[in-house]
Amino acid sequence: MTVSETSQPIELLLSVSRDESGTLGAQIENQLRSAIREGVLRSSARVPSTRDLARQLGVSRRVVVDAYAQLAAEGYLSLRQGARPRVSDTAAVASAGPETARPAATPRFDFRPSVPDVSMFPRAAWLRCLREALATITDADLAYGDPRGVDVLRSALADYLGRARGVVADPVTVVVTCGYSQGLGIVCHALAAGGAKRIALEAPTWPEQAMIAERAGLEAVPVRVDDAGIRVDELERSKADAVVLTPAHQHPTGVVLSGERRMQLLAWLRDRDAVAIEDDYDAEYRYDRAAVGALQGLEPDRVVYAGSASKTLAPALRIGWLVVPPGLLDAVSREKLLADRGTGRIEQLALADFVSRGELDRHLRRMRARYRGRRDALVEALAEALPEAVVRGIAAGLHAIVELPEAYDVRAIRDEARRRRIALETTLDFWPQDGDGRATLMLGYAQTPEPTIRAGIRELAEAVRAAAGRSQDPAGGATPT
Question: Which domains does the chain have, with CATH numbers?
Answer without folding.
Answer: 24-101 (1.10.10.10), 109-117+362-476 (3.90.1150.10), 137-357 (3.40.640.10)
